[in-house]
Specification:
- Belongs to the peroxiredoxin-like PRXL2 family. PRXL2A subfamily.
- One of its GO terms (molecular function) is antioxidant activity.
- It is found in: Cytoplasm.
- The chain has a domain of 42 residues.
- Strands 1-2 form a two-stranded antiparallel ribbon.
- By secondary structure, the protein is of the alpha+beta class.
- The mean pLDDT is 81.
- It contains three helices and two strands.
- Strand 1 and strand 2 form a beta hairpin.
């Protein structure tokens, strides 16, 4: 995303939302890598949840993470 990410309206919305809620962070690192969240089940269950950031500050829904985690079945030994 590099510079184009800096000028996106959604990025600034996410920044102000985080700032208003008190998040400060350490602002260290390269700052150009988008993240993601995966919930992976045991054995052949595979990926139960995949969330990739589309722009900086794009958060995963906590209820969807918890719902996916509840679907994990222990692997039989």
């Amino acid at each position: 995303m590099m510079m184009s990410g800096f000028f996106r309206f959604g990025v600034w919305q996410n920044f102000f939302r985080a700032w208003k809620s008190g998040y400060s962070g350490n602002l260290e690192g390269e700052g150009f890598t988008l993240g993601g969240v995966y919930v992976i089940g045991a054995g052949r269950q595979g990926v139960l949840l995949e969330h990739r950031e589309k722009e900086f500050g794009d958060k995963v829904s906590l209820p969807s993470v918890l719902e996916a985690a509840e679907k994990i079945e222990p692997e039989a030994s």
